[in-house]
Design brief:
Layout: H1 3-10, E1 28-31, E2 34-37, E3 43-44, E4 47-48, H2 60-82, E5 88-99, H3 107-122, E6 129-135, E7 144-152
Parallel strand pairs: 5-6
Antiparallel strand pairs: 1-2, 2-7, 3-4, 5-7
Helix pairs in contact: 2-3
Length: 154
């Protein structure tokens, strides 16, 4: 078990199975020493956890938890490419999309769910640059989507 997986186990979490893409793409792709994940939705056991816009049908607190699910799915996508999560030397960038009610402006706090989990899982290697963007809609009416770029050992 990798250090990352042990850190997750200490949080009573585990790396899930890689989510099957909902369109024509792969979950993650390595180019050089960077691994890029596709946007990860809050899917558990192949099903979207909840639907709706944040600030309307979904609370900010619920969305923050969903962003954590997205981050777990991104970790699974990275593992599917590199095999051993201890090969990750840095989480470089996180981009989070929040399907937002027009009056909602708490996107950064929602995406903290992903950022905080990555920090707990990877420690100092989990410190990253980030964007948190409000959007009108996401695939499958998901409230949140997260993509991650990590650097790995050559």
């Amino acid at each position: 078990m990798s250090t990352v997986e042990q850190n997750l186990a200490n949080l009573e979490l585990s790396v899930p199975e890689v989510v099957t893409p909902v369109a024509a793409y792969v979950p993650a792709l390595q180019q050089g020493n960077l691994v890029y994940t596709s946007g990860q939705l809050p899917m558990v056991d192949g099903k979207l956890v909840t639907e709706g816009k944040v600030g309307a049908e979904v609370t900010a607190e619920e969305a923050k938890d969903l962003a954590q699910v997205c981050a777990l799915n991104a970790i699974a996508a990275v593992k599917s490419v590199v095999g051993d999560l201890d090969k990750v030397v840095q989480v470089v960038k996180v981009v989070g999309f929040v399907a937002s009610d027009p009056a909602f402006s708490g996107q950064p706090q929602v995406i903290n769910g992903a950022s905080e989990l990555l920090g707990k899982a990877f420690g100092d290697k989990g410190i990253h640059a980030r964007s948190a963007v409000g959007v009108a809609a996401l695939p499958l009416n998901a409230p949140v989507e997260v993509e991650v770029i990590v650097a790995v050992q050559d």
